[in-house]
Amino acid sequence: MTVAEARQRPVGRLLRGWRVRRRLSQLELAIAADISTRHLSFVETGRAMPSRDMVLRLADQLDVPLRERNQLLLAAGYAPVYPRTPLDSPALDPVRAAVRRGLAAHEPYPAVALDQGWHLIDTNHGAALLTTGAAEPLLAPPVNMLRLTLHPAGLAPRILNLGQWRAQLLGRLRRQVELTGDPELADLYDELRDYPCDQPEPELAVPGPGDVLVPLRIRDGERRLSFFSTVSTFATPLDVTVAELSVESFFPLDQATTAAFSPADGPGTPVGTAVVG
């Protein structure tokens, strides 16, 4: 959204949209923000213009992402307060260093750094396992990790439990769309949902005997590897770029997978998809 477009959209209408998205009544939001329901109603209908602090307070109670908080401020006639620093800026040197340390510490297992749109920011050596055999267009920067994973010319043909893994990925993306209201993520969800899948996709992940996590099961030549993943984010971001960074790390789920990553039988070398300088 441009600055001009943001100014043309009343802040009250935007705030009401976020309140509805969060499934809160005016009374519930008013109590949480310590304002009167009458005043909140006036703000939403445009009869009252909120102060800068009021916009930020309501955005905080609505758990609005930092990028969209700036848009709310613009719509109310105020300057944005959350910077969006380029990732290669010297100001983010500590952030890039922390990401790299996390990726390196996870060797030899795969780990990837992503932005909000699921684009690859950096990888470790083990992440080569997730890109092997993918079509060249899918590896052209900016690489979208969801597209690379679920595309029939990407990782999908090597995922043994594609239906199960695809269902949980699409579920994560759907929840992210609901949280952020990002139209680009919504378009990505529609694209990925149309990719073919020849396996059943469970609506709910119901554990089988001994299951504690949804696994990623990959065919790597003659080997069958099983992983679970964790996602790390920065706990106290005040910058849009930092707030939207995450690191997904894949851990072996069984002894056979652990053994496959021993120094004598590693997964190979990384592909040239990293963009952090």
Automatic annotation (TrEMBL):
InterPro entries named in the record: Cro/C1-type_HTH, Lambda_DNA-bd_dom_sf, MLTR_LBD
HTH cro/C1-type domain mapped to chain residues: 15-69
Highest taxon of the lineage: Bacteria
A Pfam entry, by short name: MLTR_LBD
Protein name: Helix-turn-helix transcriptional regulator
Organism (species): Plantactinospora sonchi
Upper taxonomic lineage: Bacteria, Bacillati, Actinomycetota, Actinomycetes, Micromonosporales
